[in-house]
Write a structure and sequence with these properties.
Glutaredoxin, 4-stranded mixed sheet, globular, 227 residues, Glutathione S-transferase Yfyf (Class Pi), Chain A, domain 2
Length: 227
């Protein structure tokens, strides 16, 4: 059976993407959780991943002797291996656009990721209220998300970005978590999309596990000293 190496569910947004994709699509896999630690070369985290990935990071998908350590590469591999799951849109133009928005997430939105780190268990509206006026780059990232999602939802009729669930929804699921944790302002239609994503069985299962984790990592919590 395939193995997916992931980090702490509460914090690891990159791990969340392929895990949600596999779970929501009903593709069997074994989860291997590698707890976040100091990330020093001699740490348990780095030692566990040694030999699995040259980057020393999660996620990593292991399929027999094949190792894949990039989230987009994992998504493409799963789409190739399971065409029946229709992980990309069937329409050629929609499929190209879905790949484009996933690549945009992969390479962009650095301000949102930096200033609003994933923390599913937390509720930090007061932090979001400080970040929003102080960081125009965060506002620009959210404005881009609103424009993108609004266009896609309108073009494809919802309820998800390309109608049915695709890799694009899995890819933006961690963004939905950030918008919720920090209560960043978005229009009602976008807030409704965020709620629909959170209600997907694969996403809901990840959220439940993240909240149950109770593994406080101080370096991942720049805004809180304790629960």
């Amino acid at each position: 059976m395939r193995k997916l190496y992931i980090g702490n569910k509460n914090y690891s947004s990159w791990s969340m993407r392929p895990w949600v994709l596999l779970r929501q699509a009903g593709i069997p896999f074994e989860e291997v959780r590698v707890r976040f630690d100091s990330f020093d070369a001699s740490s348990q985290f780095k030692q566990t991943l040694a030999g699995l990935t040259p980057t020393g990071k999660v996620p990593v998908l292991q399929d027999d002797t094949l190792l894949i350590w990039d989230t987009l590469a994992i998504a493409e591999y799963l789409a190739e291996q399971h065409p029946e799951k229709k992980l990309w849109p069937a329409d050629k133009a929609a499929r190209a656009r879905a790949r484009s928005v996933c690549a945009e997430m992969h390479a962009g939105f650095s301000a949102l990721r930096s200033h609003c780190p994933q923390n599913i268990e937390a509720s930090l509206p007061e932090v979001g209220a400080l970040i929003w006026p102080d960081h125009p780059a965060v506002r620009a990232d959210v404005q881009r998300l609103v424009a993108m999602w609004s266009d896609l939802l309108q073009a494809h009729g919802g309820p998800l970005l390309f109608g049915d669930f695709t890799i694009a929804d899995a890819y933006y699921a961690p963004v939905c978590m950030r918008l919720t944790t920090y209560s960043l302002p978005v229009p009602p239609a976008i807030a409704a999309y965020v709620e629909r994503v959170a209600a997907l069985p694969g996403v809901a299962a990840w959220i439940s596990d993240a909240r149950a984790e109770q593994d406080f990592r101080a370096f991942e919590e720049p805004y809180r000293l304790k629960r």
